[in-house]
Amino acid sequence: MRKALTTAIALSATVAFTPLATAQQEEPALVMEGTVANGRTITALAGPCKAYSEVTSPGLTEPIVLSPSSSDPAKGYGLGPVTEKAGTYTASVQCDGKTLTAQFTVLPLVINWYLHPTEVEPGGTITAGGDMNTGCNTSGPLESPGFAEPLRFTRGGNFGRFSGDTKAITTPGTYEVVFQCAHRPERSVKTFRILGTPPTTTTPPTTTTTPPNPQAPKPKPKPVVKPKGAPETGGGGTAP
User: Fold this and answer.
1) I want to staple 52 with a disulfide (CB 3.0 to 4.6 A). Which of 29, 76, 194, 232 is the partner?
2) Region entry Disordered: which residue ranges (predicted)?
């Protein structure tokens, strides 16, 4: 009786664990982030495979080379930069001769920078900064007619942050600052106001002189008219 019970328990355990073992057989797949910021990089994980190719896509600037994942050597892992053109793209990889695909979306470019304050006293300090991880980096200092000198980014921070300061001029008014992306056409414009009453400029009226026309007819000379009753002059003698 005890032997029959032991055999039944063993068979029950075998039946219970067989479906679980089958469920653990993972199907090969290509996994990538669903969305990625413009100008950033995207990761790819393919497998499990014994052999895999590079990951290719029109949404990548170059193929992603895969290497064995540290967490699962049967899978290939890699990352690469995405294109600057926003849109949804399909990526593919060969896994043991089978094509695996995944879709991802490149988001429109967002230029992440700030200008502070928006209102400043004449000669006051203006601060600007940004995040170079947004895909829009400026190659030079910021310039504005309202700056006493160009604003240079002299401070750095975590996650690619940068900032700098300059002085405002003393002339009140509203001025523009242009943040131009390096190596791409996008740019962003912000404004700030120097407090006070802007100067008024008065422009004197301009007078125009019409040059003489050489083709115009010349005026006729006026005739000389002798006055009436004037004494006649002679040789100086007297009449007889």
Assistant:
1) 76
2) 189-240
